[in-house]
Design goal:
Radius of gyration: 20 Å
Oligomer: single chain
GO cellular component, one term: cytosol
Strand content: 15-25%
Number of helices: 8
InterPro entries: cNMP-bd_dom, cNMP-bd_dom_sf, Env_Response_Regulators, HTH_CRP, RmlC-like_jellyroll, WH-like_DNA-bd_sf, WH_DNA-bd_sf
Number of strands: 11
CATH superfamily of the largest domain: Jelly Rolls
Mean pLDDT: 88
GO molecular function: DNA binding; DNA-binding transcription factor activity
Domain HTH crp-type: 158-231
Organism: Delftia acidovorans (strain DSM 14801 / SPH-1)
Structural class: alpha+beta
Length: 245
């Protein structure tokens, strides 16, 4: 007897669920999320695939339903850089709401990823129809501006060990998974990715990870880091910080 094909999930239901789990959107009124669901579509991307490759300048806001999105590009020397990484529950691409703006970065799936793609003009119209929701946009933008200032501050004043510790501590809550034995947090990220995020060589990252491993802060394996002392990483990160705005 031939087995029945697996049922195909309703895209609208997947979109609605992803919007409801988005950290910025989850407190929005249900009827607004329903309206946003009707405006949106799903995009599915394989590992390393560019998002919107056929039209990278398309004005869309992206909500990560599953997987991970990498924001980055290639500099004038041909070196890859990574500005940020975003996992399920994150919203990215708000800057794409700006008109007549040149962007030097794009989006790639860091792993198999499902995105909710919201047309920019429709998103702006929805916000204008519900003005109080602009507050959530402003607060998120301010939080990301603060994070950028902190990163730049550490880049200017901290040693490389402080910067590596800060990056790992920042990635752990959003990108980490509990270790199988319950001891620590697992980050599935390559040394090349870390190097691109800190604008240093992979060899430098390898050296720093070995030193952190010797200090008992983490365990390094191919494509995977297990953070066993997050508090220690945070202390090391803070040791290189100076007061800022």
């Amino acid at each position: 007897m031939r087995s029945k094909p697996a049922p195909v999930a309703d895209p609208s239901a997947l979109i609605r669920r992803a919007l409801g789990l988005c950290r910025m959107l989850h407190n929005w009124p249900p009827e607004v999320l329903d309206e946003l669901t009707a405006l949106s579509r799903l995009g599915r991307y394989e590992r390393h695939q560019q998002v919107r490759a056929a039209d990278p300048k398309r004005r869309e806001v992206l909500v990560v339903a599953s997987g991970c999105v990498e924001v980055g590009g290639v500099d004038a020397t041909g070196s890859r850089f990574v500005l940020s990484m975003h996992s399920a529950g994150d919203i990215v691409g708000l800057a794409r709401l700006l008109e007549h703006t040149q962007f030097v970065y794009d989006y790639h799936a860091h792993q198999p990823t499902v995105l909710v793609e919201i047309p920019g003009e429709s998103f702006l119209a929805l916000l204008d129809a519900h003005p109080p929701l602009w507050k959530d946009i402003c607060l998120l933008v301010l939080a990301r501006m603060h994070e950028l200032i902190v990163v730049q501050q550490r880049h200017a004043f901290s040693n490389i060990d402080n910067r590596v510790a800060e990056l790992l501590a920042r990635l752990a809550p959003t990108h980490g998974q509990p270790a199988p034995d319950g001891q620590g947090v697992v980050l599935r990220i390559s040394q090349s990715d870390l190097a691109a995020m800190l604008s240093v060589s992979r060899q430098t990252i390898n050296k720093e990870l070995r030193l952190l491993e010797q200090r008992g802060l983490l365990q390094a394996a191919y494509g995977r880091l297990t953070i066993v002392d997050l508090a220690g990483l945070l202390r090391l990160a803070d040791a290189g910080a100076r007061p800022g705005p």
